[in-house]
Amino acid sequence: MGKKMKAAVMTEVGRIDYMEKDIPVPKDNEVLVKVKHVGLCGSDIHYYRHGRIGDFVVEGPIILGHESSGEVVEAGRDVKGLKEGDLVSMEPGIPCGKCGFCKSGKYNLCPDVVFMATPPYDGAFVEYVAYPEEMAFKLPGNMDTVEGALIEPLAVGFHAAKQAKAGIGKNAVILGAGCIGLVTMMTLKAMGIPEVYMTDMVPKRLQKAIELGAAGAFKADETDVAAKIEELTGCSGVDMVFETAGSKAATQQTVELVKRGGIIVLVGMAPEALVPYDLGKLISKEAGINTVFRYRNLYPDAIRAVADGLIPLKEIITHTYPFSEVEKAIECSINNKDDVVKAIIEI
Fold first, then answer.
1. Peptide bond into 120 cis (omega under 30)
2. According to the 3-state scheme, what is the secondary structure of 208-221?
3. Total Cβ atoms within 10 A of residue 119
4. Are 218 and 199 in contact (CB under 8 A)?
5. Using 50, 70 and 90 to split pLDDT, how confident is the model at 43?
6. DSSP of 244-301, one letter per residue?
């Protein structure tokens, strides 16, 4: 019998129980990581409440949490780049490495990816994780595991900016000022794009957006956003529109906000499978639509941006909970949506 660790297990929808599990033994190409911090993601909350996201269905006990970081406590014999005591951020998807998507560099589209906290795979609300060296990224000395855990959502923001071909001289609107909207905004600002506007219906999120440097933040249910953007841009619209709220209404609004020849990036996923959309207006503007599914090849860039002081990642955190209160953290995020921007679990 191996040594034991605690794990926060979702045993049924709406319930987290703490269990003892064996501490994993790292394979030759793996490191054993003492998990230190895990961000609470919207997907964790969705699985907890509904037991599924689209085609991903929870069919038994599962450990949630995929935004994770920790300290290497043991290294397999083939591990060369990491050693005991290193702090790492773990990219939660392990692709097959063999399919056409992986070989072309688009490994986020790998159909056989093993992704933390996505059924049937367990996540990081545990004390220890054995993880492949190539997906565990060493943090520089001026970063800690709080920032390390938030590299995952930041990578989504980086990918969104890349999908928009963001560059100096452009402007943007981000619909949704939650965690993903905020990291997208901070990414754009780090790229030299100061004119980024944000919308949301939660005042605390809008306040956070202004604190982090948004050029304007508007309450979507009280503002005619299209008219406001026309006013701010001289009726031209913006170069880039990012939908990060996962809202049907916001998705439909994107075509009203984008300028002729601009680009729309859909990051959030609306609950409705089919969203009516004004394709005629999109075509008349010759605007493009791009989408985001996770990220690829971006953890090193995201880590470097934080280490260089370009992105104040910790500023999005509003709540921190101990490992013993994972269920409380999830319930608080559900019941106090107006107060919680980003919660993190300290293991």
1. yes
2. HHHHCCCCEEEECC
3. 17
4. yes
5. very high
6. -S--HHHHHHHHHHEEEEEEEEE-S--SSS-----HHHHHHHT-EEEE--S-SS-HHH
CA max distance for the chain: 70
pLDDT score of 1 more than 60? no
Q: pTM of the predicted model, to two decimals?
A: 0.96
For every residue of 108-175, DSSP letters joined together read GG-TT-EETTSTTS--S-BSEEEEEGGGEEEPPTT--HHHHHTHHHHHHHHHHHHHTT--TT--EEEE
DSSP annotation of 196 reads E
For residue 230, which amino acid is it?
E
DSSP bridge pairs for 62: 10
Name the pairing type of β-strands 67-75 and 87-90: antiparallel
d(CA 266, CA 331): 28
Structure tokens at 15: 């319930």
Place of tokens 């943090």: 139
* Under 8 Å between Cβ of 44 and 64: yes
Q: Catalogue all structural domains in the chain, each as residue range(s) with its CATH number.
A: 4-150+317-346 (3.90.180.10), 157-291 (3.40.50.720)
Give dist(CA 242, CA 202) in Å, integer. 18
Q: How far apart are CA 277 and CA 241, in angstroms?
A: 15
Gap between the Cα atoms of 276 and 280, Å rounded: 12
In single-letter form, the type of residue at position 228 comes to: K
- Distance (Å, whole) CA 227 – CA 153: 31
Structure tokens at 149: 């855990």
CA distance 240 to 172: 5
Q: How far is CA 101 from the centre of its chain?
A: 21
* Confidence at 273, pLDDT banded by 50, 70, 90: confident
Q: pLDDT at position 289, please? A: 97
